[in-house]
């Protein structure tokens, strides 16, 4: 930026009417008072090389190389933008529509940059000492409310390939800082604003982190009502289908990371379900997003569809689906108002769709088998005797046999999962270092580690490690053709149901609430969830479903308690109305 070369430009600024111009790295004139960038560019005449030829500066945005060959000048928000781009591409490869990246996620990110005053505003942070002011006419709340779907932006940074895409004019204008600040920050971090970003503390500000990128992805999936739940998203991250751990190693080679960038982009733990769920609500509230599209009965996230999916995965009878649908209807959990996410409501909360569906299945199992380590085994004895006598008829569901088969499959799957986690290499191929001076040492250490790993793997096991598994919505697969394992999808529930008129009732007339401790002496008292307080069959079912969703058993236990609360509240109100009507008849 040379002020002397811009003195020949004498026009007044269209915003502040000042005549004080400078030159950007792209050769365009910008106002030094209000930072307004014009479309006019300085013409450079180089008669030494090509006589009478006029050359204009190439528009390279922030992709300008340092004289010290330390890479591009880049900002923290560009790093997170690149991670979001890679995650959106991964979701696209998993079958998600391209509009999620080009329309929804891009507009969420654009709105975040504006709300956090990093771009799309008059005075962004790190530019001047003045307090930034967000443009009121850009992405206002009324614009969101008037559109049922997010509009597409032709200047989307996600349309081109990664960070090579040209930035928007607003972004280039808002991400300018002084040369003195650049030289100061480049010593402590690879990014220009790494030090300021890590030190920035504002009330109500949601700072971007690597886990926040998953919150953005899940919000986009939820807006599009895609067939991916939060637990599926985290499992795909765990299986390395979606970039998360060491996502910075996918940055272009010219984007150098060191110093403060380690704490911003480095992750050394797997994403937690409850943590990402809370961050999702936090981000949606910060962005002032409108009510999301309704979750109707034909949506994948509706509990009736998710219940069928999880019943198939854990090898339970198909006849249980009608019972789960009945529970969903009685509790009102299938209503669109209950399921639809509304961030601008008084209490912003979204439904844990996968956890809720699994909790409904657990409640149905308790209604059928009680799960007290007694009744389920008695009913299993009856089913076993019936199946021996009537081998040609449709077999009754045997809970004991199902328990044995599922426990063996679950133990094998969990052991493989634990071994894969233990063998996971947390160190990235692109090492992080504290300063540019430490780069040779960091790369030398990384090279030594790789060599030692190769030698150790050769000594321990000569077989090559298995490649990355192909993504799948199911972790357990059950088919009738499998002769080694019994498939219970087609088994009957006649052994646990009885006919009364035209309706079916459960043979089990007892029930114990999950908020109470169930003892052998049948005393009950309120307690928090501990495995020692509950039956072995109930513990196994919670552990099985918790493993499928990658959540804690206590979280599922709490959701089961919420379903029971809604179920028995509605059931109590119905019986109360019936008793009142009988009294009136008398």
General description of the model:
Strand 1 (21-23) and strand 2 (28-31) form a beta hairpin. Among the domains are: 1-41, Single Sheet (N-terminal domain of TfIIb), CATH 2.20.25; 73-120 and 188-289, no CATH class; 319-395 and 487-579, no CATH class. The strands form three sheets. Strands 1-2-3 form a three-stranded antiparallel β-sheet, with no helix packed on it. Strands 4-5 form a two-stranded antiparallel ribbon. Strands 6-7 form a two-stranded antiparallel sheet. The chain is built from 19 helices and seven strands. 44% of the residues lie in helices and 4% in strands. The termini are far apart. The chain has 586 residues and is mainly alpha-helical. The protein is elongated. Its main location: nucleus. GO terms for molecular function: RNA polymerase I core promoter sequence-specific DNA binding; zinc ion binding. This is TATA box-binding protein-associated factor RNA polymerase I subunit B. Residues 80-252 form the Rrn7/TAF1B N-terminal cyclin domain.
């Amino acid at each position: 930026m040379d002020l002397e070369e811009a003195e020949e430009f004498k026009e007044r600024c269209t915003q502040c009417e000042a005549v004080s111009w400078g030159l950007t790295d792209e050769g365009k004139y910008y106002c030094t008072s209000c930072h307004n960038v014009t479309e006019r560019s300085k013409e450079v005449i180089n008669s030494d090389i090509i006589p009478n030829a006029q050359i204009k500066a190439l528009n390279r945005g922030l992709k300008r190389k340092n004289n010290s060959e330390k890479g591009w000048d880049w900002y923290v928000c560009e790093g997170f933008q690149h991670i979001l781009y890679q995650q959106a591409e991964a979701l696209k490869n998993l079958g998600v529509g391209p509009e999620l990246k080009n329309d929804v996620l891009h507009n969420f990110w654009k709105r975040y940059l504006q709300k956090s005053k990093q771009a799309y505003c008059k005075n962004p942070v790190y530019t001047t000492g003045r307090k930034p002011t967000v443009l009121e006419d850009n992405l206002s709340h009324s614009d969101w409310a008037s559109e049922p779907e997010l509009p597409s932006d032709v200047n989307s940074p996600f349309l081109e390939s990664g960070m090579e895409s040209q930035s928007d004019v607003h972004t280039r204008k808002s991400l300018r800082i002084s040369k003195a600040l650049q030289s100061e920050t480049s010593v402590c971090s690879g990014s220009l604003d790494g030090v300021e970003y890590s030190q920035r503390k504002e009330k109500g500000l949601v700072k971007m982190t690597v886990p926040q990128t998953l919150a953005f992805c899940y919000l986009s999936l939820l807006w599009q009502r895609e067939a991916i739940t939060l637990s599926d998203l985290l499992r795909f991250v765990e299986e390395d289908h979606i970039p998360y751990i060491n996502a910075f190693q996918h940055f272009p080679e010219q984007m150098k990371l060191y110093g403060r960038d380690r704490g911003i982009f480095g992750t050394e733990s797997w994403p937690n379900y409850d943590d990402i769920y809370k961050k999702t609500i936090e981000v949606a509230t910060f962005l002032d997003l409108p009510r999301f599209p309704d979750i109707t009965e034909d949506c994948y996230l509706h509990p009736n569809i998710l219940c069928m999916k999880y019943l198939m995965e854990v090898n339970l009878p198909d006849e249980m689906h009608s019972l789960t649908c009945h529970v969903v209807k009685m509790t009102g959990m299938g209503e669109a108002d209950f399921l639809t996410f509304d961030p601008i409501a008084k209490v912003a909360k979204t439904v844990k769709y996968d956890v809720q569906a699994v909790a409904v299945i657990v409640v149905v199992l308790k209604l059928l088998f009680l799960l007290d380590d007694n009744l389920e085994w008695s009913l299993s004895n009856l089913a076993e005797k019936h199946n021996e006598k009537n081998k040609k008829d449709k077999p009754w569901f045997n809970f004991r046999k199902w328990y044995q088969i599922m426990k063996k499959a679950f133990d094998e799957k969990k052991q493989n999962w634990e071994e894969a986690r233990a063998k996971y290499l947390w160190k990235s191929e692109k090492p992080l270092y504290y300063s540019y001076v430490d780069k040779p040492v960091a790369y030398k250490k990384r090279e030594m580690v790789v060599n030692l790993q190769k030698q150790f793997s050769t000594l321990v096991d000569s077989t090559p490690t298995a490649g990355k598994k192909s993504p799948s919505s199911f972790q357990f697969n059950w088919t009738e053709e499998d002769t080694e394992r019994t498939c219970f999808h087609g088994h009957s529930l006649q052994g646990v149901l009885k006919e009364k008129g035209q309706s079916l009732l459960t043979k089990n007339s007892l029930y114990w609430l999950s908020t109470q401790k169930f003892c052998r002496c049948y005393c009950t008292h309120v307690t928090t969830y501990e495995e020692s307080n509950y039956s072995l069959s109930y513990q196994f079912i919670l552990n099985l479903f918790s493993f499928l969703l990658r959540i804690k058993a206590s979280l599922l236990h709490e959701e089961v308690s919420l379903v029971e609360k809604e179920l028995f509240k509605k059931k109590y109100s119905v019986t109360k109305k019936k008793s009142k009507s009988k009294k009136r008849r008398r």
